[in-house]
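Input record (one chain):
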Amino acid sequence: MKKFTESNKWEDSWFRKLKPHEKILWVWLLDKCDHAGIIEPDMELATFHIGYQYSNDNLDVFSDRLVKIDSNKCFIPKYIPFQYGSLSKECKAHNPVFASLEKHNIDATNLQYKGYPKGIDTLQYKDKDKDKDNTKNKSKGTEQEFVEFAKELGLTSNDGVYLFAHFEESDWKRGKDPVKDWKAAMRKWKAAGWLPSQKNCITTKSPRPINEPLKYQQNGNKQRGYGAND
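The corresponding structure, as predicted from the sequence alone:
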């Protein structure tokens, strides 16, 4: 039986943290499971194929991705959405999947995922539309959030309102690139001194306090009074 494999698993943080013999065992489970992602792990056979002495205890590391359905068999829930996208009883190629799910009393209606292109990461199922929305929402803040964060940075409320209006006007883009992190952008604007309160700030000498006595110094034959800041 031919199967799709996820080449990007080598970049997946969960997979990277596995020990070498665990990585191979996980790939072996994906290769040896049936059409629905169901397998009765034969650790003696895995030992023979891989050349490492395995026991059932080695399966514990996959506990969040491998579900026990009885004393001997396990189910890989993310296998189906990766291999098929969405299931349809009108598709003959999906018949073995439905047959296996029914045989093991797994409710197929809970596996009707929205169709996605082949190649979804088997090890970490990702709803691409949801991730896209989350990224979009993360890049945008509300005007109130801008104001509050401006205050956290020691800026004025007007600085937050100004920067929010600026990003709204530019459709949340910096040049051709979208704003990925508005908080980081505000920090950059502050560091560069681009915000209104920074541009309008005029540094002047502080006036002499009213109660501070005048001091005098000799200047030839003339004397003049001067304050501490003269």
